[in-house]
């Protein structure tokens, strides 16, 4: 007989957010190779009138020795989002430098109240590059 493994709801809620964002499905290897790791905890909001909302604690840890430039955003499949940095919708236009950007030496934490099912995406770049709105890193253009 196989043992039954019970996982707390908070862990299940954080699993979709365990890997860095990319245009394709991220794998565990991609997360291991990245300098920045994201950890998310989501707890129910105590107010009953906001039963579908959760308090998100989003923590980024830099595992490399050099400073990184971080951009993160949120998206939801069926609900409009207003408070946090919202991921731009895919359109035919060219990607631009993402905003807001955060320098991360060791650790950075953010807290937001967002609807259940919110997806958090991010990209971290070395200091010689800047994150773009389509979650890539573009080298910083040097003046001639």
Account of the 3D structure:
This protein is mainly beta. The protein is 8% helix and 37% strand. The chain is built from two helices and eight strands; from the N terminus they run H-H-E-E-E-E-E-E-E-E. The strands form three sheets. A three-stranded antiparallel beta sheet has the order 1-2-5. The termini are far apart. The relative contact order is 0.23. Residues 1-32 have low confidence and may be disordered.
- Count all strands and give the number: 8
* Mean pLDDT score: 77
> Cα-atom Rg, whole angstroms?
17 Å
Main β sheet profile: 3 strands, antiparallel
- Helix share of residues? under 10%
Strand fraction equals: 35-45%
List the helices and strands and how they pair.
Layout: H1 9-14, H2 28-33, E1 36-44, E2 53-62, E3 68-75, E4 102-104, E5 107-115, E6 119-126, E7 129-131, E8 137-139
Antiparallel strand pairs: 1-2, 2-5, 3-4, 3-6, 7-8
């Amino acid at each position: 007989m196989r043992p039954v493994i019970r996982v707390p709801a908070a862990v299940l809620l954080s699993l979709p957010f365990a890997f860095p964002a990319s245009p394709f499905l991220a794998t565990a290897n991609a997360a291991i190779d990245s300098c920045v790791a994201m950890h998310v905890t989501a707890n129910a909001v105590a107010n009953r009138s906001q039963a579908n909302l959760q308090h998100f604690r989003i923590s980024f840890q830099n595992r490399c020795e050099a400073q990184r430039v971080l951009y993160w955003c949120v998206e939801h499949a069926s609900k409009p989002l207003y408070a946090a940095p919202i991921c731009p919708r895919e359109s035919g236009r060219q990607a631009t430098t993402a905003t807001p950007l955060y320098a991360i030496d060791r650790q950075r934490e953010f807290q937001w109240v967002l609807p259940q099912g919110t997806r958090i995406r991010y990209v971290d770049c070395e200091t010689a590059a800047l994150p773009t709105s389509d979650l890539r890193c573009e080298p910083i253009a040097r003046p001639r």
